[in-house]
């Protein structure tokens, strides 16, 4: 059942991608004059903003986890898997 | 374990999918904009060969190693190659398109200022690749 769900999900994505591509594709109407430098560099800055934001959230989470769940943390609690007598 | 919740995972997955969708949409939109050729764009056939560029305008005039265009007009380059893979690049205008034997690749631009700019090959194409250069002259309209 799980396999079928995953398989259908992949098929759905494979079908959805070309459909989205088609929606965003250039139409028949003529294009406007634009400065491709502006469009391309704008995209670059947006992507860099996303990359650095995601990067700092992910690395911040990892740093916090390492700090919070170290053994020497005042609120550290042994899990049932460790079985040590604290 | 008791009290365990999947919510953080689901929120994380949703945020990641949303971000990827947004990034994809932005990239698609930029691609759509820069690939959308204006109706009145003039066609210039750009031929790359070892180791120089040839430009053929709509009226049949040809230029070798230099290209003269007029400011404020749109130009569509049809980039072809006679021998090996090259890549047509006007760095200052972020124009970059591969020249592949047997294919016609298109890219367009509209220069907005009078000036001179370098044209170069950006795909290693042999011994003199480093010197496969040209000059773009953006000039005032003649009429």
Reconstruct the topology from this structure:
The complex is a heterodimer of chains A (86) and B (143).
Chain A: H1 2-24, H2 36-68
Chain B: H1 7-35, E1 42-49, E2 52-56, E3 62-64, E4 66-70, E5 75-81, E6 86-90, E7 95-99, E8 105-109, E9 115-121, E10 133-139
Parallel strand pairs in B: 1-5, 4-10
Antiparallel strand pairs in B: 1-2, 2-3, 5-8, 6-7, 6-9, 9-10
Task: Please name the CATH topology of the largest domain in chain B.
Answer: Immunoglobulin-like
Percent strand of chain A: under 5%
Which parts of chain A are unreliable, with pLDDT below 50 for 5 consecutive residues or more? none
Q: Unreliable segments of chain B (pLDDT under 50, ≥5 consecutive)?
A: none
Bulk shape of chain B = elongated
Give a quick rundown of the structure.
Helices cover 65% and strands 0% of the residues of chain A.
Which short descriptors sum up this protein?
heterodimer; A: 86 residues; mainly alpha; 2 helices; 65% helix; flat; B: 143 residues; Immunoglobulin-like; 2 domains; 5-stranded mixed sheet
């Amino acid at each position: 059942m799980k396999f079928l769900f995953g398989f259908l999900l992949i098929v759905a994505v494979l079908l959805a991608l070309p459909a989205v591509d088609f929606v965003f594709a250039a139409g028949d109407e003529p294009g406007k004059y634009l400065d491709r430098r502006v469009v391309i560099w704008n995209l670059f800055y947006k992507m860099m903003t996303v990359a650095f934001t995601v990067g700092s959230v992910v690395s911040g989470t990892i740093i916090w986890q390492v700090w919070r769940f170290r053994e020497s943390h005042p609120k550290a609690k042994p899990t049932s898997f460790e079985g040590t007598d604290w | 374990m008791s009290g365990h919740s999947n919510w953080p995972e689901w929120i994380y997955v949703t945020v990641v999918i949303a971000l990827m969708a947004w990034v994809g949409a932005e990239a698609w939109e930029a691609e759509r904009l820069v690939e959308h050729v204006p109706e009145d764009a003039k066609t210039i056939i750009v031929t790359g060969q070892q180791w120089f560029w040839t430009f053929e305008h709509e009226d049949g005039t040809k230029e070798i190693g230099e290209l003269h265009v007029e400011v404020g007009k749109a130009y569509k380059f049809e980039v072809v190659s006679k021998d090996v893979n090259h890549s047509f690049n006007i760095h200052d205008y972020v124009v970059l398109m591969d020249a592949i034997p047997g294919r016609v690749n298109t890219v367009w631009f509209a220069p907005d200022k009078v000036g001179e700019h370098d044209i170069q090959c950006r795909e290693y194409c042999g011994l003199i690749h480093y010197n496969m250069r040209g000059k773009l002259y953006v000039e005032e309209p003649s009429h």
